Amino acid sequence: MSITRDEVAHLARLSRLALTDAELDHFAGQLDQIIGAVARVQEVAAEGIPPMTHAVPVANVFRDDVEVPCLTPEQALSGAPAAEQSRFRVPRILTED
Amino acid sequence: MTDLAHLVPYEEALSRYEPVIGLETHVELGTTTKMFCGCPTTFGLEPNSAVCPVCLGLPGSLPVANRTAIEYTIRIGLALNCSIATWCRFARKNYFYPDMPKDFQISQYDEPLCTDGWLDVVVEGRTVRVGIERVHLEEDTGKSLHMGGATGRIHGAEYSLVDYNRAGIPLVEVVTKPVAGTGELAPETARLYVTELRDLLRSLGVSDVRMEEGSLRCDVNVSLAPPGAAEWGTRTETKNVNSLRSVERSVRFEIERQAAVLDAGQKVVQETRHFHEDNGTTTAGRSKEEAQDYRYFPEPDLVPVAPDRDWVEQIRASLPELPAARRDRLQAEWGLSGLEMTQLQNAGALDLIGATVAAGASPPDARKWWMGELARHANATGTELTELAITPAQVARVSTLVRAGTINDKLARQVLDGVLAGEGDPDAVVAARGLAIVSDDAALTEAVDAAIAANPDIAAKIRDGKTAAVGALVGAVMKATRGRADASRARELILERMS
Amino acid sequence: MAAGDAPTGSELTRLSAAEIAAAVASGDVSAVEVTQAHLDRIVAVDPDVHAFLHVAGIGALAAAEGVDRKRAAGEPLGPLAGVPLALKDVMTTADMPTTCGSKILEGWRPPYDATVTKRLRAAGVVILGKTNMDEFAMGSSTENSAYGPSHNPWDLTRIPGGSSGGSSAAVAAYEAPLAIGTDTGGSIRQPAAVCGIVGMKPTYGGSSRYGLVAFASSLDTPGPLARTVLDAALLHEVMSGHDPCDSTSVDAPVPPVVAAARHADVSGLRVGVVTEFSGGGSQTGVQARFTEAVELLESLGAKVVEVSCPHFTYALPAYYLIAPSECSSNLARFDAMRYGLRVGDDGVRSADEVMALTREAGFGPEVKRRIMLGTYALSSGYYDAYYGKAQQVRTRITQDFEAAFEQVDVLVSPTTPTTAFPLGERADDPMAMYLADLFTIPSDLAGNAAISVPCGLAPEDGLPVGLQIMAPALADDRAYRVAAAVEAALEQRWGGPLLAQAKELREQAGETR
Prior knowledge:
The complex is a heterotrimer.
Chain A: H1 5-14, H2 21-38, E1 62-63, H3 73-76, E2 83-84, E3 87-91
Antiparallel strand pairs in A: 2-3
Helix pairs in contact in A: 1-2
Chain B: H1 10-16, E1 18-28, E2 65-66, H2 67-79, E3 83-84, E4 91-94, E5 104-107, E6 114-123, E7 126-139, E8 143-147, E9 159-163, E10 170-176, E11 179-180, H3 186-204, E12 216-225, E13 236-241, H4 244-263, E14 272-276, E15 281-284, E16 297-298, H5 309-317, H6 323-334, H7 338-346, H8 350-358, H9 363-381, H10 392-403, H11 409-420, H12 426-433, H13 441-454, H14 456-463, H15 470-480, H16 487-498
Parallel strand pairs in B: 13-14
Antiparallel strand pairs in B: 1-10, 1-11, 1-12, 3-6, 4-5, 4-16, 6-7, 7-10, 8-9, 12-13, 14-15
Chain C: H1 11-14, H2 17-26, H3 31-49, E1 52-55, H4 57-72, E2 84-88, H5 115-122, E3 126-131, H6 165-172, E4 178-183, H7 189-195, E5 198-201, E6 221-226, H8 229-239, H9 257-262, E7 270-274, H10 275-278, H11 284-299, E8 303-307, H12 315-330, H13 351-362, H14 365-378, H15 384-407, E9 410-414, H16 430-434, H17 441-446, E10 449-458, E11 463-471, H18 476-494
Parallel strand pairs in C: 2-3, 2-4, 7-8, 7-9
Antiparallel strand pairs in C: 1-3, 4-6, 5-6, 5-10, 9-11, 10-11
């Protein structure tokens, strides 16, 4: 399994990373090497082996539907790069959700 | 863009194609707090005042699932005749969007909480069983204001302002299986399905199901194929259709539009479309540069949900009478035909009549007033019955006044008008307008004598034995008393005077 | 120490946490004196060590005063009241910046405290500041910090390990007797090993992740670093326990780790040497010290057997699929919309463009690599072959542990294959860097408990070697018991702690920050 520069460019777009051309070249080589190495997991016989998604085998952890104090709008917006009308100001959005 | 000239007239479209519809309905649950944190779900709070590190997606914060939201979802699943998962997980749906604080949505992917159920919908007297594919639980996003553009819409805006108060509110998604075979009734079926689902959710007490506030929203899928085709056609998904009427209109429009595309020998593009309330059309959503790849994987910050069977059975036992069962019961109790019942339901009068009966009116009376005078009033003013400024208790009181002979039907209409005009309770309107029937002989005799005196010809005819002419004198008495006279007593008095 | 013979100034920085707590509790020293001594030490040596990203002198002294007031008022003090601590900059603090070693969070002040932070404050532990780390805990050397690397106090030209390298360096340089680290693939144990101190990765879920800025959610575990096993256990006990804000937190009592650390006895204990980790692959001196440590355990009465864990050799590839996958999702939120860096917002560019430019400018190369690797592993079409398969391997590794723990009470291995390598040596060679976590990753994948305790110096470079002791999930106390026994026996052999063999750092004159 190897990864092409185009695939790395696709991954960068999916990951919202505006990589430079030099970075693309550099990362393509490194990712190819890493993916080659991690593909070793495919050597392990795993038929019928359940995937392990959690380290602790626990289920049903819930909270009660009870209100707890919120942040104030000032606290919520304290780290905002830009704010207006008690809201987070963000650059224009091109696509509908 | 859709060229409105390129639509196939509805009946014509249906003559060549069979529509298949599917609905994905999002319901904001009416829990006190959000899905994964203790912030309130209250509507209309100051922007960003109902947020905390968790629903704001601050680095380091972690979700903990709201037990009541899980319970409500199971309630919905049971009411929709679904199987409840014995073990399932939340998953992360990864995509970048400014109103989504973590840039992933905690949702459920291949392990929904409820699967494989159904909901019966009565369409034009026929029961259509709509299959339910799944009911799953996820979190809502924040809301954006688009600033600087001319329209306040996303396109042309210069920047946006985001409020995360709605972010993290529990959102249940009810997904139907494809519904085929409804033909020309497809748009109506879609609307009635959403109506039935809304009524069901309301009766379950799990949501306030207000489409206008966005607590119930629909994505509508439509595809067309020639009758008898081996495979269904390519479907489009019209997003965020926000009223019952729009559900119906969007299906109808897509049928007309897709028929035109197919007639032209072209292929329907599988895409997301947006519905426009103003002109009833749909347009293609702006195509994304990259195909979406949501990279779902099990949410590692939450542990699996494995609803205990005893818990599920407790929830099942606590389900209220569901709308369909209630309709069957009321139909029997009220002695109505199926069609009459459907009329009540379509008029949104079922609860009103039920409440009016509960307040003391007989079922036929309650039905008569709501479906008669009040329905006319609603129609004339372009409002819903539920929005009229009159309560079931007030209608019941009017009915009681008629039964007691205090007023007659004609006067009752004036009383209803008075109540609707804000003149107070029925008794107050009767008093203020002086609408009580006049039945004391002294007052009536005066009117009778006046009527005889004013109509000597008619009086003569009566004296000659033509008693059918009495009606004309009674009419004159009624007119003189502005309808308040007790008509039968007036008749008796006239005949006494003539004998 | 005798009354009237209370330690002063720099002597205070040489005390263990247990000794400091006792001295504060008895009134021999004030918490303020202890804190000031450590702040002075930081001023003197941190320009060379660069363990701290932020020193909170005023806040630390205020917290210390609070402890002294409580003592004066006769209120009960916790077992670590008045003891200074260095907090990894991945834990949120409402009164200090939290950067995770990343430009993208430069200057970010969280509006809330992590659960661990809260518990430390409640216990009267004095937080001196925030320590350097590999960006978002991704790395084994601190060279991935956006704020420059930390230096190993044993040899300033070498790495202090990572990602909790600021924490390990601070403890080894006597800037703090205690530090908090987080372990995802070895990020507590490996830096502890290469700095010659003790580092413990508790059972996953034993310590709360609430307020720990996530790297890989199913692996991240906060834990203690200290110069002695007992100190580590004391901190472990204070910081741990069930947290309702963390769904994956274990709802069970904290294992009796302090008692275990005081019960340094391994007689009759069954110790398994992991076959797959005891052959070649390690530096000669590391292997030699490890072999000695195993012999030592045997001489202390432990029964040593070799145990094969055949899937451990797949732990590294599985880890480098699972951790990047989770990280690609966890780090998506750094999108320039709500907090942190924003680049390129010129009023014309779209939100998407600003996100991409910000993430490009704000993340370092290792973070970008892992985000893309994880995005790849989760992509439709690749999921089953990579992420899915890695999860199955994770099950296999856990099964290997289960089988092993049927035969033995603990497993041992070297903590990391080499001693501290020179700064820059592996900086742009990710595969070489990843090997540092070869032996530590299995316990992260299985979620069990593992500790690193110093076991000597490699003869060829004179640098510390760590012994890793792995115990079953929730048997954290067992790891402490073995570590304490090894520590006691070796310190007797050495005539003092290993750290005493490190040459003194040059102290610079300067003002307390």
